[in-house]
Amino acid sequence: MTAEALHAGLAVPHGFFTRRGGVSEGPFASLNCSLSSADAREAVLENRARAARSLGADPACLSGLHQVHGIEVAVVTAPYQPGSGPRADALVTAVRGQALGIVTADCAPVLFADAAAGVVGAAHAGWRGAAAGVLEATMEAMRALGATAITAAVGPCIRQPSYEVGADLRDAMLAVSAGAARFFVDGTCPDHWQFDLAGYCAERLHTGGAQIVEIVAADTLADPERFFSHRRRTLAGGGPLGHQISIVTL
Q1: Cis peptide leading into 34, omega within 30 of 0?
Q2: DSSP readout, 80-148?
Q3: Is the sign of the CA dihedral 116, 120, 126, 132 positive or negative?
Q4: What does the pLDDT look like over 227-242, one tens digit per residue?
Q5: Model's pTM, two decimal places?
Q6: Using CA atoms, how far apart are residues 202 and 200, in angstroms rounded to an integer?
Q7: What is the torsional sign of CA 35, 38, 41, 46?
Q8: Domain residue limits, the chain
Q9: How far is the C-alpha of 91 from the C-alpha of 88, rounded, in Å?
Q10: Which residues of 178-210 are buried (b: 16+ CB within 10 A; e: fewer)?
Q11: Staple 141 to which of 92, 191, 236, 249, CB 3.0 to 4.6 Å?
Q12: CA angle 63-226-101, nearest 5°?
């Protein structure tokens, strides 16, 4: 899947990949791209290589992270070896040929570009990271590399009709900003709400200075044929979990 703003608008090679088109089997079928999963490492490396090659990128130049739901941003000047990326939740680069990858299974993958400046970025935005400022931190890191006009695309994630949350999450979000209340509507159970993660991310991107923001229409929980989903796995009682990858490259 691609974002129109990045594809037609800027011609930046990128992709929000689904779970289709890989070599993994069983619960990881088929394009599982998480090196921290219980899937066979060789299968995951092949899946990641397929995703990179489909964008014209060298698989050896695809960098990933040890994602921790924080706000640290890594500046990539040379590729990380598979599985050796730092503990961070976003990457940026101004080096041609580098590819930046984020894995998700309900959290929002966000891809960034300033094509004129030759700077791209990728971020993993769950509710914790988004509330803490990972999206703004990514754009600041891009600006430090020369970006001035940033386009951002929020990729497939768990959407509001599927994302019921309790008072603890809502209270934590409102403690950051009372204005976050507009991203919650009443849930099906008492003291539960449906949270609009994609809309919240888009708002943070706009207020953080992104010139263009797009939300890609897809719900990871509601579409098991195309997406892995942590919430779906939890509702089913647990078990192995795969992750899809999102990549942007110069």
Answers
A1: no
A2: PPTT---B-SEEEE-STT-EEEEEESSSEEEEEEETTTTEEEEEEE-HHHHHHTHHHHHHHHHHHTT--
A3: negative
A4: 999 999 999 999 999 9
A5: 0.98
A6: 5
A7: negative
A8: 4-159+196-249
A9: 8
A10: eebeebbeebeeeebbbbbbbebbbbbbeebeb
A11: 92
A12: 10
Residue listed under structure tokens 């991107």: 205
Quick one: tokens of 249?
A: 């490259």
CATH code of domain 4-159+196-249:
3.60.140.10
Residues across the chain: 250
CA 228 to chain centre: 13
pLDDT tens per residue, range 167-216: 999 999 999 999 999 999 999 999 999 999 999 999 999 999 999 999 99
Cβ atoms 184, 172 nearer than 8 A = no
CB 23 within 8 Å of CB 13: no
The Cα 5–Cα 151 span in angstroms is 7
Q: Indicate the pairing of strand 164-166 with strand 99-104.
A: unpaired
User: Please, which residues have CB within 8 angstroms of residue 78's CB and are 6 or more apart in sequence?
Assistant: 95, 98
Please give the structure tokens belonging to residue 4. Answer: 């129109």
Residue linked to tokens 């959290």: 107
